[in-house]
Amino acid sequence: MRRTLVAVVAMAVITPVALVACGKDGGKQGSSAWVATPSAGADPSAGTGTDKETESATVPVSLALTPATGKTGVPLSTEIGLKLAGGKVTEVTLKDEKGAVVPGKLRDDGTAWVPGKTLSPKQKYSATVVVTAGDGQTTTQTTSFTTMGKPGKKTGTGLYLFDDRTYGVAMPVVVEFSPGIKKADRAAVQRRMFVSTSPAQPGVWSWTPNGSQAYYRGPEFWKPGTTLAVRIAVGGLPTGGGRYGDRDRSATAKIGRSFEMKVDNASKKMTVMQDGKTIKTMPVSLGKKSTPSVSGVMVVMEKKEQTVFDTTDTDGADGYVTDIEFAQRITWSGQYLHSAPWSVGAQGRRNVSHGCVNVSPGNARWLFERTLIGDPITVKGTEEKLGYGDGWTPWDKPWAEFVKGSALPVPASLK
């Protein structure tokens, strides 16, 4: 039996998501708005460029720019490509045909300068690049080009992150694409997905098999107090099949305190830890054998103080409509942590739910008042394993497996 929740996850979305409670069917990965970064986690659009301070002043400066002067039909995501020897880039200025300056930054590897916004269609742009040699002498070079018209076919994008929000330590950066990005096109898209963390922490992008989602995370949960700055710069970017990214997406958010929930089917108990210390334990009832809870590392994706689980659409005459309090979604397929006054007698003793984590009304309220979107909940010892992509699941893969999903080479130090 499955229940359909009359609510949607708070996010920037492409299309609404059907919510199915406490069951395995009918769920889908939600849509949202997105952003891109390099596979190692640095923000290419926030890079400082190549620093060749030690290069000899006797090396002649050689600089080639792209797009070439006079180039037309240039994608709206175009970067100023820099093939440089004998110096370092000290200034890049990009202007539109009215003379307005377009902001932007060098990639960390110095191979290109990335505009800070999607360029306008059918617009002529001029770029001026200044290179300083080791002896202090400067060389200036220019190029001009014209962008293409407004793209006809687009790839929808979404980003599950919002400005000025505070998230749990397991909050991954989640980007969605509709339709999904094929393998051959993922590297180019990933190069336009930028993430920076303060304090600095390593991270890698990893794609789901169908290319509909990309997750960004580090080897460990984020440090409490971390600031995440994300830009998915895919507006006007060729994404394959004659499609172009619909728009740029960006967000800057905070990571809060460490708060973890660990559920053990053997003991039928949840252990709650904050900042590494156990602060509470409580009895639970998990899914019965016919509708088992899944085992794995999940993340709180949505919170509803009051909602309705409706299974009549999926279970027909066997379905039901039930008011639910303090519901916290942990999978797309319909598993939740929620108040279950009807199963209090079974909690801590036996499993009677339709896959959800049942707790008492008092414990459900206590948790609801303390959790954040992005807090981790780990369930172990049940009959069924969490499916990858059934929710925000990047933490359910060992790091060595997770990094294999990157479309770009991963530095040896991060493998």
CATH topology of the largest domain: L,D-transpeptidase catalytic domain-like
In terms of quaternary structure, the protein is single chain
Mean pLDDT: 88
**Spatial arrangement of strands, main beta sheet:** 2-1-26-27-28-29
Work out the radius of gyration. 25 Å
Low-confidence stretches: 1-20, 24-57
* 3D shape: elongated
Task: Specify the helix fraction band.
Answer: under 10%
Number of strands: 31
Beta-strand share of residues: 35-45%
Distance between the termini: 42 Å
Largest sheet: 6 strands, mixed
User: Could you say how many structural domains there are in total?
Assistant: 3
The number of helical segments is: 4
Q: What top-tier CATH class of the largest domain fits best? A: Mainly Beta
Instruction: Name the CATH architecture of the largest domain.
Output: Beta Barrel
What is the assigned CATH homologous superfamily of the largest domain? Answer: L,D-transpeptidase catalytic domain-like
Structural class: mainly beta
How does this structure look, described?
The longest helix is centred in the middle third of the chain and has 8 residues, at 183-190. The chain is elongated and about 80 Å long. 6% of the residues lie in helices and 39% in strands. The chain is built from 4 helices and 31 strands. The two termini are 42 Å apart. It has a 6-stranded mixed beta sheet with strand order 2-1-26-27-28-29. The protein has a 6-stranded mixed beta sheet with strand order 16-17-14-12-20-19. Residues 30-60 are annotated as: Disordered.
